[in-house]
Amino acid sequence: MIIVLKNGVGRTEAGVLAAELEKQGVTVDFSEGANQIVLGLVGDTTVINDEVVRANRLVEKVMRVQEPYKRANRKFHPKDTIFELPGADGKKIRIGGDSFVVIAGPCSVESREQISSIAADVKKSGAAFLRGGAFKPRTSPYSFQGMGGHGLDLLLEAKKETGLPIVTELMETSQLELFEEVDVIQVGARNMQNFALLKVLGRCRKPILLKRGMACTMTELLMAAEYIMAGGNDRIILCERGVRGFDNYARNILDLAVIPALKQKSHLPVIVDPSHATGLAWMVPAMAKAAIAAGADGIIVEVHNNPERALCDGEQSITPDAFSDLMETLRKYAALEGKVI
Amino acid sequence: MIIVLKNGVGRTEAGVLAAELEKQGVTVDFSEGANQIVLGLVGDTTVINDEVVRANRLVEKVMRVQEPYKRANRKFHPKDTIFELPGADGKKIRIGGDSFVVIAGPCSVESREQISSIAADVKKSGAAFLRGGAFKPRTSPYSFQGMGGHGLDLLLEAKKETGLPIVTELMETSQLELFEEVDVIQVGARNMQNFALLKVLGRCRKPILLKRGMACTMTELLMAAEYIMAGGNDRIILCERGVRGFDNYARNILDLAVIPALKQKSHLPVIVDPSHATGLAWMVPAMAKAAIAAGADGIIVEVHNNPERALCDGEQSITPDAFSDLMETLRKYAALEGKVI
Amino acid sequence: MIIVLKNGVGRTEAGVLAAELEKQGVTVDFSEGANQIVLGLVGDTTVINDEVVRANRLVEKVMRVQEPYKRANRKFHPKDTIFELPGADGKKIRIGGDSFVVIAGPCSVESREQISSIAADVKKSGAAFLRGGAFKPRTSPYSFQGMGGHGLDLLLEAKKETGLPIVTELMETSQLELFEEVDVIQVGARNMQNFALLKVLGRCRKPILLKRGMACTMTELLMAAEYIMAGGNDRIILCERGVRGFDNYARNILDLAVIPALKQKSHLPVIVDPSHATGLAWMVPAMAKAAIAAGADGIIVEVHNNPERALCDGEQSITPDAFSDLMETLRKYAALEGKVI
Amino acid sequence: MIIVLKNGVGRTEAGVLAAELEKQGVTVDFSEGANQIVLGLVGDTTVINDEVVRANRLVEKVMRVQEPYKRANRKFHPKDTIFELPGADGKKIRIGGDSFVVIAGPCSVESREQISSIAADVKKSGAAFLRGGAFKPRTSPYSFQGMGGHGLDLLLEAKKETGLPIVTELMETSQLELFEEVDVIQVGARNMQNFALLKVLGRCRKPILLKRGMACTMTELLMAAEYIMAGGNDRIILCERGVRGFDNYARNILDLAVIPALKQKSHLPVIVDPSHATGLAWMVPAMAKAAIAAGADGIIVEVHNNPERALCDGEQSITPDAFSDLMETLRKYAALEGKVI
Q1: Chain C partners of A336 at a C-beta cutoff of 8 Å?
Q2: Virtual CA dihedral for A43, A49, A55, A59, nearest 10 degrees?
Q3: C4·B38 Cβ contact <8 A
Q4: What is the pTM assigned to this prediction?
Q5: Are A209 and B185 in contact (CB under 8 A)?
């Protein structure tokens, strides 16, 4: 940690501050300029509360050298996190490493027929997971809020029929008991900094698909992962789903450069949601291909058997046929990256 | 609602779509251009799911003429929402209208002495409410998370001592039972779209201070209010606390123009949080004054008896003395706006 | 154009406004709601000044159905713009269509040896164009401002040696006479809305590489192209180079979804600058691959023989060896898209 | 300047880098952590090219302690820049200090009658300067581009009639000769980083009103001012006019907190443009008042005698009557700040 003192703060005052900091277990180096002293803190600076330092009247600026996350940090865990889950037909699904995982399904579960039919279709085309929302976070209280517990039951039926493990979103901790048979719990973008929720998920034993908040930095995403990992759950899949921007040609800006950046800083797998990122079905294939090229470990994509009748997000859903074509194409791109779908 | 059809869609196809829409109770007007038909929907279009319309293969664009919120909408409730709460020393606190309300206190409750002393100080200077966090949303799991239930007890003690009603943040629905004696429940920026939480608050009988999410639009803020109001709770105080921007001279960009915009579109009172907006104590007075000038109905401001020792956000906290001076100044500005502090 | 009138504006007043608009050659359809009238304008609405309409006291909102650009608009020019330029060794360089063009070279020309050596290197690896800055837009007046006219001479020498056509940035119209032998004139992001410059370039007969401004929308980029095309110059290469965002892990957010969006709305070729977009050499390969996958027609990439000694932007420059490897990889990705480098 | 070396870089390698840096006249302090060395540079670090340092393979991060601007920096010029210009009726106009200056007039000059009448009106209400565009930067090549040289003549006639000094925008250096009698030259937001233009203005002897670019940081604004000041021209008025944001309730986000921030970092006067910031006439008064409260030294506001017929930006123009009322109000706010209009 680097602490830049204000212009004119003298060696004596600086010494008092340094002594205080050293009581917290770090050592403090001095770099004395013409009219400004800079302190360099050496040791485990995660114990230092930088807010307290910032609020000190001698201090102009504080800069952290070390990242604020540990368990999610590649420095301390150089090897990629790779984990396996049981998939359809007795196969293992590998997440991370040389595997490219495809999660597909409708925005929300609407009926037994709908989810069953889509599940069968996406399985045939090679999806590893079935997605589908039972509890839906909607910006309007007057929009369809999902089928709730019944939707979850229908998802589990589709799982039984196809063998596809399921990914679905948890909106509040009280729903957790209903998620017993869910395979991967999704945290939505709007809940990425719902710290109460993250803490509870840290104590559960299921993999978490953690979506980046719509204006959250890479560091904030990793800190959200850290919350879960601090509780003991280290099976986390990070998900880039577009951030809020100033243009309106698409719903969000898909930030693909965050993939190599996350890979450098963290060992966690990273997937991309091209459906929510753009909000437009016709853009999904281009962005799915680009995600592979940028180094993603998978995608989560919305597929609906009748997008024009979808109760939510039909505009961004592709049909099972389009999904089948997309999978063909993605296999070629994955091969170039040395990955297997 | 205006529906622009794709280039080349003919009158017949358009007619089928229009007939379907009319089944939902609206009437549809046609405006036929050289190569593009535009449909104008008349009637109660809130029943129309625009996602379904957008996903229709004939449709290029959908534009809502009506706002998606009703209860929060000034069109349907032309008069300002004004409500009263019991304040210190038997006085009534008025929120909205010609009243300018000041909520002050530390970022988090740290000890009995701290909160009592600050409570006494801010009361003396004229604050109407005491604020203080017991449950704190922190970006790092390793930061101080607040004193929890005990912090709440200390807040309530300070309330007993001073008579100041209290405002404090609820982070999850399970905490609600602890909030029995809390006067105003705060929803933090990161929870503005925690819809599960909003629904529960809609059923509670306490005023809600609803902070704008860090990258949420004015409409999204009003839709979050609508969630609460749809549940039957219409005592909501909106709060602008800065939005995320591209610069780093301060923590956020304080968006003061949203005040007149909110006032035009909604009847709800609007306050400003200059402390979180800037993250810098020395900017608080300028932004507090500007908030009044822009038409705010109040401010919520962080005051700490020893900012250099604050366990959180010390850098943005002003001292009780600075707060006292600020109140002097704010009274003059409020007077120009015909408001009373 | 759709004009939503204010609540309560009556049929008579609306009729007067409609009559005025019809004098400008359009016809006006009425859609009359319970308390709001909507006007639909049919015909060539590009003649209508929407600012004047917006300022009308009866008007609440104005929405354009048609795009404001014509010459850059795919609706009026359905076929891709493809053009050819003479390349090295008597070959033709094709821009657009099934060609993927690579423009490579240093941020700025620093010496004869530097530019000659880099030119030879990038040619060997298959670059179609040599880039290099002679006049440099720098945020600090104290930074190296480029070698100016002499730098241009060195670029032209390198062109003579290698046969590579050159791309270089023009910063003001007075420099134009020096650009006689330049093959493609670059307009920098900071000049994308320097309309005086765009007008002059509309009258010149050289292809223009037009970079997207750092916070400009897709429509604004196309309007900047329209400025040039309105002057008669229709050989324009659009360039996405990252937009300003709220995060700081990289210099900008590379907005790859704008590629399919631009391709849908316009017939102009689109390339990507992964060097400026990220500011980090190690991210360039991932983003270059992703650009192809997203549908780009080329890239412009910074290559320096000694990035650690580069006078500008060394951090984002790759070495000739890394460039050679990158070209190998890109050929495989281009092949998947049916494109030839 | 602080240089954080990569993990594992040893003392010997670090020493070589330090020696190289010391050749440039600074001294280098070492702070050696468990696995990371940090270098602290002492002395005049403005001579160090941080891009070169960043590109060094040993370096992880570079952080400047000193601001990159000197002439615009309050550290080196602690006193406010205040300057005077001859105003109407033999009075002096003071810019900066305890003066609040109002610049008013139409977006663009449209006719002799229009500009004369508005000039007389704004003078009567107390404006110090007349504004009006002759050369207009428009996003569409098909929009009214201003009256050009003739518009300038009409502005100068209005100046003769009223005595009001004029402020008008220069779009390219070739127009400079026409600006002989212009009192203050405006640089538009889109030209804030047109460095060729800034350099020329550095050599001219007229005050410059420099508008902040639509996604430019505070530091970039001060660096643009530094360009002009480096040329010898130190009479600069900074102007906040809103930055690009993600919401669309108004045209831009007016960033009023940048006023105290600029005042802390720089000695230059700062004014606000509430008209362009919001794009909505009805928001102008609230934002003008807030600008004073936030510490601005003036405003530039659009006034049009017939906003509904304005050839540009009518929606954001207030009428002369509204301007007169606004001036009444602003005088009271200015008084609270110890300023005189």
Answers
A1: 329, 332-333, 336
A2: 10
A3: no
A4: 0.96
A5: no
Question: What distance in Å separates the CA atoms of residue C318 and residue C326, rounded to the nearest whole number?
Answer: 10
Identity at D276, one-letter amino acid code: H
Contacts of A282 (CB under 8 A, 6+ apart): C260, C264
Which residue among A287, A295, A333 places its CB closest to the CB of C286? A295
- Chain B residues whose CB is inside 8 A of the A139 CB are 193, 220, 223
Taking residue A111's Cβ as centre, other Cβ atoms within 10 Å add up to 12
CB contact under 8 A, C65 and B4: yes
How far D312 CA sits from the closest chain A CA (Å)? 23
- pLDDT in tens for each of the 341 residues of chain A? 889 899 889 999 999 999 999 998 889 988 887 678 889 888 888 778 888 899 898 998 898 888 889 999 999 999 999 999 999 999 999 999 999 999 999 999 999 999 999 999 999 999 999 999 999 998 889 888 999 999 999 999 999 999 999 999 999 998 999 999 999 999 999 999 999 999 999 999 999 999 999 999 999 999 999 999 999 999 999 999 999 999 999 999 999 999 999 999 999 999 999 999 999 999 999 999 999 999 999 999 999 999 888 888 889 999 999 999 999 999 999 999 999 99
- How far is C278 from C61, CA to CA, in rounded Å? 38
DSSP 8-state class, residue B148: T
What is the value of ipTM here, to two decimals? Answer: 0.94
Q: Name B176's Cβ contacts closer than 8 Å, sequence gap at least 6.
A: B170, B200, B204
Considering only CB atoms, C312 lies closest to which of D51, D190, D193, namely D51
Q: Could you give the CA distance from residue A102 to residue C10 in angstroms, rounded to a whole number?
A: 56
Residues counted in chain C: 341
B72 in Cβ contact with B228 (< 8 Å): no
- Using a CB cutoff of 8 Å and minimum separation of 24, what contacts does C87-92 make? C87/C128, C87/C163, C87/C164, C87/C165, C88/C123, C88/C128, C88/C162, C88/C163, C88/C164, C88/C165, C89/C163
Q: Which amino acid, one-letter code, is at A25? A: G
C-alpha distances (whole Å) from A310 to each of A27, A107, A295, A305, A314 are 61, 8, 31, 8, 5
User: Which among B141, B199, B312 has CB closest to A230?
Assistant: B141
Helix (H) or strand (E) holding B259: helix B258-265
Which residue of chain D comes nearest to A214, CA vs CA? D246
Q: Are A209 and A184 in contact (CB under 8 A)?
A: yes
Write out chain C residues lying below 8 Å of B3, CB-based: none
Residue numbers in C near B31 (CB within 8 A): 29, 31, 40, 42
Give the tokens for residue A19.
């002594």
Facing A65 at nearest CB: one of D36, D245, D246: D36
List the chains bordering chain C where 3 or more Cβ pairs fall under 8 Å: A, B, D
Closest Cα in chain C to D49: C143
Residue C186: in which H helix or E strand, if any? Answer: strand C184-187
Contacts of residue A92, Cβ cutoff 8 Å, sequence gap at least 6: A84, A85, A86
Report which residue type is found at C212.
Answer: R
d(CA B157, CA C149): 76
Nearest CA in chain D to C54: D315
Tokens of C156: 């032209």
By the 10 Å C-beta count (0-12 exposed, 13-18 middle, 19+ buried), C157 is classed as: middle
Least Cα distance to B250 among B213, B216, B287 occurs for B287
Chain C residues touching residue A261 (CB < 8 angstroms): 249-250, 283
Residue found under tokens 């920098």: C188
d(CA A289, CA D182): 56
In this complex, do D34 and A40 lie within 8 Å of one another by their Cβ atoms?
A: no
CB contact under 8 A, A54 and B314: yes
Residue B30 burial (CB count, 10 A): 16
Contacts of B203 (CB under 8 A, 6+ apart): B231, B232, B233
